[in-house]
Design goal:
about 230 residues, alpha/beta, five-stranded mixed β-sheet, two-stranded parallel sheet, 7 helices
Length: about 230
């Protein structure tokens, strides 16, 4: 069994991210292995890896890769290494921790949906912009609009910023609903990602919310590497 300890999250977009990360890591006991998965730009990954080597030069740094088959999950991709590592790790954790067929929806910068049969066979997936990315795309093309922090709602709006927020919200909800309706058989909806709790507020069907799904998949990979 894989057991997660305490989880601390930091926003890599904050200006002093590396300094705060270094301070946080200095408070940890000496690790023997560090497992890193990243879909951010290579410069950030290089900086984080360098920090690992600086703080803990004796620790082995392991970077999981998406593959055709691992830990009971078989990828649907013809080129499995091209499946985003965050999606792959979420699938591994979904298969390990939840029984039956699942639709894994990761609500982050992008919204990704992946279908996973009960036997671990990945059936494929979809990707669309996340809530914030959809809002940014509209603000970028319309000079008079700016990003806002309005609460997402599912009703009609009477001003533009609210119309944008509600529109992108319903777009995401509609995508999830349409995909879930397309399945034959009993599929569990499994929500994860930074905006999962926002999306969950308006989901009209049963679901499981597990915002640590990708980290659980990373822990599975890390434990597997230690066993080698």
């Amino acid at each position: 069994n894989t057991v997660l300890g305490g989880i601390t999250s930091l926003d890599y977009r904050q200006p002093d991210f590396l300094q705060v990360l270094a301070q946080t890591w200095r408070e940890l006991s000496l690790p023997t292995q560090i497992t890193i998965a990243s879909v951010a730009d290579k410069a950030l990954l290089t900086a984080v890896t360098a920090l690992c080597n600086d703080l803990w030069p004796s620790a082995a740094v392991f970077m999981p890769q998406s593959s055709a088959c691992a830990f009971g999950v078989t990828s649907a991709y013809a080129s499995p290494e091209k499946l985003g590592i965050d999606r792959w790790l979420a699938l591994l954790a979904a298969h390990r921790h939840y029984a039956g067929s699942k639709c894994v929806v990761d609500c982050g910068t992008a919204i990704t949906l992946d279908a996973l049969a009960a036997d671990g066979k990945h059936l494929g997936g979809l990707i669309c912009p996340g809530l914030v990315m959809m809002k940014k795309s509209l603000a970028a093309d319309t000079a008079s609009l700016s990003l806002n922090t309005l609460k997402y709602r599912t009703d009609l709006a009477n001003e533009t910023n609210a119309a944008i927020a509600n529109g992108v919200y319903l777009a995401a909800l509609g995508l999830i609903d349409r995909v879930m309706q397309s399945f034959t058989g009993d599929y569990c909806l499994l929500l994860t990602g930074g905006d999962a709790d926002i999306v969950a507020e308006a989901i009209s069907m049963p679901f499981i919310l597990d915002k640590e799904l990708v980290l659980k998949g990373l822990a599975i990979y890390g434990a597997g590497a230690l066993a080698l």
